[in-house]
């Protein structure tokens, strides 16, 4: 009888481990497929926005210690919705440009380019891409490499919505020079 109980216990453990592994493998495979599909959708939206006839409004701003020759450019679709915002500027030996993309009022993508370096050294360029769905970062890329999302990608999400609000207030330095 004791052997029978042990066999049942071992069989139960094997069944549980097998079920757990099956569940875990489905959990890791499914989000990857969903992420790939979502990124493909974001790339399509990006292309559509950049080829659509858009109207633009441009604002200039400066803030000591933060930005010289700052510019925020808003792009509107035919429905007068903001679909893209380009924020750029320079300070010291560096300059930047960030493009924020929106679909149905939701932030979906950010492309950031930084150029700079010491006055007597070589110029460097860095690129960052943040893919977002439902305000959650799906993928973050530094140059051509996929890296863990961090503060920079979280900042892109926050700043994107603050820039939409800044369209009405025109207080760009308050949003961008924090």
Number of strands: 8
Question: Order of SSEs, N→C?
Answer: HEEEEEEEEHH
Q: What's the N-to-C terminus distance?
A: 72 Å
User: Rg from C-alpha positions?
Assistant: 23 Å
**Total domains:** 1
Strand sequence of the main sheet, in spatial order? Answer: 1-2-3-4-5-6-7-8
- Which structural class should the secondary elements be placed in? alpha+beta
State the share of residues found in helices, binned by percent: 40-55%
| Low-pLDDT residue intervals, each spanning 5 or more residues | 1-9, 14-31
Main sheet record: 8 strands, antiparallel
Question: Treating each run of at least 4 consecutive H or I residues as one helix, how many helices?
Answer: 3
Tell me the β content.
Answer: 35-45%
Mean of residue pLDDT values: 85
Describe it:
- This protein is of the alpha+beta class and 178 residues long.
- It has one domain.
- Helix content is 42%, strand content 39%.
- It has an 8-stranded antiparallel sheet with strand order 1-2-3-4-5-6-7-8, sandwiched between helices.
- It is globular and about 45 Å long.
- It starts with a helix and ends with a helix.
- The N terminus is likely disordered.
């Amino acid at each position: 009888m004791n052997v029978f109980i042990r066999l049942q216990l071992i069989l139960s453990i094997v069944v549980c481990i097998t079920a757990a592994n099956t569940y875990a493998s489905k959990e890791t495979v499914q989000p990857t497929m969903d992420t790939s599909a979502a990124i493909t959708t974001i790339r399509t939206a990006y292309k559509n926005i950049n080829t659509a006839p858009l109207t633009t409004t441009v604002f200039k701003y400066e803030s000591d210690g933060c930005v010289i020759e700052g510019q925020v450019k808003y792009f509107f679709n035919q429905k007068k919705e903001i679909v893209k915002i380009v924020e750029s500027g320079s300070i010291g030996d560096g300059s930047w440009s960030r493009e924020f993309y929106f679909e149905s009022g939701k932030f979906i993508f950010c492309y950031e380019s930084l150029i700079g370096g010491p006055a007597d050294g070589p110029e460097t360029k860095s690129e960052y891409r943040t893919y977002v769905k439902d305000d959650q970062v799906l993928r973050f890329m530094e140059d051509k490499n996929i890296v863990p999302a961090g503060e920079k990608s979280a900042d892109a999400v926050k700043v994107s919505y603050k820039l939409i609000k800044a369209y009405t207030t025109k207080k760009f330095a308050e949003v961008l020079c924090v």
